[in-house]
Amino acid sequence: MNSLPLNWLLDFGLAGVAATSLLEKFLPILPSYVLFVFIGLATVDNALDLFRTVLMASLGSTLGAAGWYFIGHVLGGSRCEDIIGRYGRFVFLRPELYHRLAAAYRRNHFWVTVIGQTIPTVRIYLALPAGILRLPLGSFLLATVIGTLAWNTPLIAIGYLLRDSGWDPVAAGIAVGLSMMGLELLVAFLVAYARRRSAGKQFS
């Protein structure tokens, strides 16, 4: 990790953290659960640094999401679908994923955005259909900030806590990411199970 251009960018301090977080939304070279653990390992020296780093990383992530929102808003649905069909596979955005993201917004827009910011890959591209559908910008940005803080804060904090542990940032990031995805799957399973039981009681 020491040879990555990422280190050069992070040499700019908090501005570099914000820029790295913004670029992660457009150039997902590293999974975010590795990137933010690495940021915590590389840049945070104390609790005040942790607070400022989380804020700047979340600012960068939110600006990146706003960028995708405006791309969708300007290009519109048909042009975006055409571009995704041709080139989406090169950036992990296949048409099937795009259609699932758009369909998710048939439910509560606000909470779909909050939860989407805590799911790898989804957190990058969810803003695109939000812009195409022209969701209210204010509530979209507020939901994005909440979801981004929920995702960035524990990852950066874990990186900070692991500074002197000898853990490799890639291994730490993968372990954290798998744990968070496992928790999300468990929550999704429990919600689906509760809904099925509720539906069964209504028809009994």
Automatic annotation (TrEMBL):
One of its GO terms (cellular component) is plasma membrane. Residues 30-160 form the VTT domain. The chain crosses the membrane at residues 26-44, 51-71, 110-128, 140-162, 174-194. The keyword Endoplasmic reticulum does not apply. It is a multi-pass membrane protein. It is found in: Cell membrane. Keywords: Cell membrane, Membrane, Transmembrane, Transmembrane helix. This is Alkaline phosphatase. It comes from Rhizobium multihospitium. The lineage of its organism: Bacteria, Pseudomonadati, Pseudomonadota, Alphaproteobacteria, Hyphomicrobiales.
